[in-house]
Amino acid sequence: MNIDQAKTIYREARECVALVSLEWCTFYDVEAGRNDICVRDDLTGHAEPIASLLPECGFEDRRLMTKAPTYLRAAILLAEAAFTRIRVLEAELAGRKPPAPKDYAAECAMKCNDRLFRIYLSECHGVDATDSERINTRVRSILAIRSRAELNTDPAAKARWRDLKAAFDAWRAV
Question: How many domains does the chain divide into?
């Protein structure tokens, strides 16, 4: 793999991770006698199988497959933090003022007022898009934050916002 291929794969991974379930888990299917990788329904808590693991699947392979969304999100979060740090250091070396940090809270507030984003929230997240307060409350719930200000201070919340935004962009592109 070369750097151009890696960049393409990185972009694909960012889009993909925004669309997959937050976490996968494993359950043993007694009737079938095998482990399944499952996703949980956010509303019911019910685990739905998405893949079956054969008995020949080793522990480390099983762990990688089960934790793939978490590992990928962590890698992307670390890469994004590194990219930001590199931009700051490059600006300092060049004698320029470092770029101002992005205001994700303001970006989220603007998106919540965007008509197309509201349609996306309604169609993909079951949000009542007719009421601004319900939209804001549901977006905070989706992002697991109490206040949009956390988007500027908590790296994990920032990553969840970028994932939601990427899922919206992917939905919009279809």
Answer: 2
